[in-house]
Amino acid sequence: MARAPLIAIEGLDRTGKTTQTSKLLSHLTSSKVKNRLIKFPDRTTPIGQLINKYLTDKQFELSDQSAHLLFSANRWELYTEIINSLTKESTAVVLDRYVYSGVAYSAAKGLDFQWCLNPDVGMPKPDVTIFLKLKDSKATSKREGYGDERYEVVEFQDKVRFQFEKFENESNWHDIYVDGKGIEEVEREIWSVIEPYINGVEEDLHKF
User: Fold this and answer.
1) How far apart are CA 63 and CA 75, in angstroms?
2) 3-state secondary structure (DSSP) of residue 161
3) Which ranges carry the Thymidylate kinase-like domain (predicted)?
4) What is the dihedral of CA 13, 16, 19, 25, to 10 degrees?
C-alpha cells in the first residue's frame, strides 16, 4: 500500500526556502493531497525554545557539540509525528530544513562530518530533497533581514555550502539554482520534481 511522501526543502539562509515551501504546499492542496509543514528547528517544543534563544541571543553561549545535539534532539521530538503522518494519516510531510542542514551547519563550524550525522541515525530519509542553490554566494547578504541571526555571515555560509555539497550524491537529491530567476520559475521547477511523488510512494521509508 502506498504511503505519503516525505519532502525536504534545503538551502543556505535567505535562499527562498520559506516562500517556495509555501508555494509547494499550495500545489499539494490544489492537487487534493493532504499535507503538513514541519519547520526545523521547531521553536515551539521545549528543546526548540532553548534553540530559539541560542539563535536569537548572541550572548547565550553553548559549545558547538551541545548546540548540535540540541538541534538533533529537536528533530527526534517530531519523529513519531512524521512517521504517523506519512503512514497512518496518508499526509505528505514537507520539511523546511532537516537533517542535512543540521549536519552541514555544525560541520561548517569544524565538527567531524560523520560525528554530526550520527545522532540522526534512524531518522526517516526524505523521498525527495530540493536544495535551493546560489551560484553567487554573496547574493544572500543583499536580502532584507540578512544577518539578524547567529549563522547569517557570508563567510560562514560559504563553509556551509561546502558541507551541503557532500550530500549531492544522495539519491533523489535535486539542486535548483535560484539566482536570476523569478519566484514563479523556481516554483515550476520544484513542482516538476515533486509532482511524480504526489500519488504516494510504494517502498518503505529509508532511514539515515
Assistant:
1) 19
2) helix
3) 9-190
4) -90
CATH of the domain at 46: 3.40.50.300
Q: How far apart are CA 167 and CA 170, in angstroms?
A: 5
Q: Tell me how far CA of residue 202 lies from CA of 3, 118, 124, in angstroms.
A: 6, 27, 15
Q: Could you give the angle at the alpha carbon of 198 between the alpha carbons of 196 and 201, nearest 5°?
A: 85
Rounded alpha-carbon distances, angstroms, from residue 17 to 28, 131, 191: 16, 9, 14
- DSSP output for 80-128: HHHHHHHHTS--EEEEES-HHHHHHHHHHTT--HHHHHGGGTTSBPPSE
Q: State the cell numbers at 183.
A: 519566484
Structural domain count of the chain: 1
Query: One digit per residue, pLDDT tens: the chain, 208 residues?
Result: 899 999 999 999 889 999 999 999 999 999 999 999 999 999 999 999 999 999 999 899 999 999 999 999 999 999 999 999 999 999 999 999 999 999 999 999 999 999 999 999 999 999 999 999 988 666 554 445 545 555 667 889 899 999 999 999 999 999 999 999 999 999 999 999 999 999 999 999 999 9
Indicate the SS3 state at residue 5.
coil
In a domain, 202, yes or no: no
